[in-house]
Amino acid sequence: MRNGTNHRRSAESRGSTIVEFGLMLVVLLPLMFGVIDLSRVFHDSIAVWNAAQAGAEYGVYDLMHARNAQAISAAASADASDVAQVVVSSSLSCKCSTVAAACTALCSGGAPPAVQVNVVASKTFTSLFRYPGLPPSINLRASAVMRVQ
């Protein structure tokens, strides 16, 4: 008799274990998918920031590189090659001490203006799943400003 009651208890405990696992799965699966999407958005935001930095670093080499917007965009896109659809734009700005100036004119002391490369990288991140209360896509944007050597 004792042997039969042990068998019945183990069958009951197996059934309750399956029910408990099913209940925990309902909680853990959405949590796991949320963690996956959160890690994806962090990865993409870091890649967009690195792309802006890489484009600016390419542009500050000299004035010839700074004026080549297509090559700056290519350098930034190459840095973010593992992330799709990164949009890069670049521009030049010039300053005489703290005042904006034309890049073709000299400053008041006769010195050339300080030339800066401005690079903006952006990407629209779309989550794998829709979450209540959160938008389905997020715009990631990073900018880098560096002075041309």
Question: How are the elements arranged and paired?
Answer:
Layout: H1 2-59, H2 63-66, H3 69-79, E1 87-96, E2 99-101, E3 114-126, E4 137-147
Antiparallel strand pairs: 1-2, 1-3, 3-4
Helix pairs in contact: 1-3
> How many helices does DSSP assign?
3
Principal-axis shape? rod-shaped
**Regions with little confidence, pLDDT below 50 for 5+ residues:** none
Structural class comes to alpha+beta
Domain count, please report it.
Answer: 1
Helical coverage, percent range: 40-55%
Which H/E pattern describes the elements?
Answer: HHHEEEE
**Spatial strand arrangement across the major sheet:** 2-1-3-4
Which percent band covers the strand fraction? 15-25%
Q: Kindly state the mean pLDDT as a whole number?
A: 88
| CA(first)-CA(last) distance | 90 Å
Largest sheet: 4 strands, antiparallel
The count of DSSP E runs of length 2 or more, i.e. the number of strands, is: 4
Q: Radius of gyration from the CA trace?
A: 28 Å
Please characterize this protein's 3D structure.
The protein has 149 residues and is α+β, with helices and mostly antiparallel strands. It has one domain (2-147). The chain is built from 3 helices and 4 strands; from the N terminus they run αααββββ. It has a 4-stranded antiparallel sheet with strand order 2-1-3-4. A hairpin with a 2-residue loop joins strand 1 and strand 2. Helix 1 packs antiparallel against helix 3. The longest helix has 58 residues, at 2-59. The radius of gyration is 28 Å and the shape is rod-shaped.
